[in-house]
Design goal:
Helix content: 25-40%
Number of strands: 10
Shape: globular
CATH topology of the domain at 6-113 and 182-261: Rossmann fold
Strand order of the largest sheet: 2-1-3-4-9-10
Order of helices and strands: EHEHEHEHEHEEEHEHEH
Radius of gyration: 18 Å
Strand content: 15-25%
Number of helices: 8
Oligomer: single chain
Distance between the termini: 41 Å
CATH architecture of the domain at 6-113 and 182-261: 3-Layer(aba) Sandwich
CATH superfamily of the domain at 6-113 and 182-261: Alpha/Beta hydrolase fold, catalytic domain
């Protein structure tokens, strides 16, 4: 969605589509931002069961950022869930070139209250023949607190392989690569120097506040904010507080644009 000279690279969650970001992306565009929400090979949803490597995901995101940076005066990066993990990894590599970071439901650990106990065993299963057959199926509440929307998504999950919140199940290779990306990003947090806002539910069913609190503690940026939400689960871009989420991201990105654009006033003026 083409807008002004300030672009936003928006990264959706693992094996999902940009639809889960649509309410935020639409408002960003209406606010004058150019929005780029790529569907990346081996990362986004596909009928093809093959999953790319985490480094391939990151390299594609970096290439997309570089493409935008060559055409727009400012580029922010924003992501949801594992997309937020990718966004932080991009920020760690591109440093000052990033105007701002929006990390939504940052997933540096799968440790939410609805995470299946057996998900922790998935790395072990990856190195056995189970990797070709075992899938972790999405279960209610599907990251959604809003009961009406949750019911609708439940119908989608039951009917086919894809819902508004992503794939109905995740393969062991996909989960294994996600774990590797999370581990890499945790090690790179001190390299993040761009202004960063993290929005995270205190009731997140997939990832607890441990991850974003780690970012706030370790990132080297002067402005790192953590805003806790209290009426949503993991999918904060779709849930009860989606309008509030969009407004916070827009305000933060806009503030960084103003900060960059303002002339420096010397003591002699």
């Amino acid at each position: 969605m083409h807008g002004g000279d300030y672009a936003v690279l928006a990264l959706h969650g693992l094996r999902s589509t940009p639809l889960e970001l649509k309410p935020v992306l639409k408002k960003l565009h209406l606010a004058g931002f150019t929005v780029d929400a790529p569907h990346m090979t081996g990362y986004g949803f596909s009928e093809n069961p093959e999953t790319g490597r985490w480094r391939e995901w990151l390299d594609e995101a970096l290439a997309r950022f570089d493409f935008l940076a060559s055409r727009y005066s400012q580029v922010a990066v924003c992501g949801l869930s594992i997309g937020a993990t990718l966004a932080l990894a991009v920020a760690a590599e591109r440093k000052q070139a990033i105007s701002a970071v929006g990390a939504l439901s940052t997933t540096l650990y799968y440790d939410g209250w609805n995470t299946p106990w057996y998900r922790s065993l998935s790395p072990l299963g990856y190195f056995t023949p189970l990797r070709y057959y075992m899938h972790i199926h999405e279960t209610s509440p599907f990251g959604i607190k809003n009961e009406r929307l949750r019911g609708w998504i439940g119908g989608q999950v039951a009917a086919g392989p894809l819902s508004l919140v992503g794939a109905s199940s995740l393969s062991l290779p996909a989960l294994h690569e996600a774990e590797r990306l999370m581990r890499h990003t945790r090690r790179q947090l001190s390299k993040i120097v761009s202004p960063t806002i993290m929005l995270h539910s205190s009731n997140d069913d997939i990832a607890s506040l441990k991850g974003p609190r780690m970012v706030k503690r370790l990132a080297d940026a002067q402005d790192v904010r953590l805003v806790e939400l209290h009426d949503s689960y993991h999918m904060i871009t779709l849930d009860n507080e989606r309008d509030h989420v969009a407004a916070l991201v827009i305000d933060f990105f806009t503030a960084q644009s103003v900060a960059v654009s303002m002339p420096t006033v010397s003591d002699d003026d």
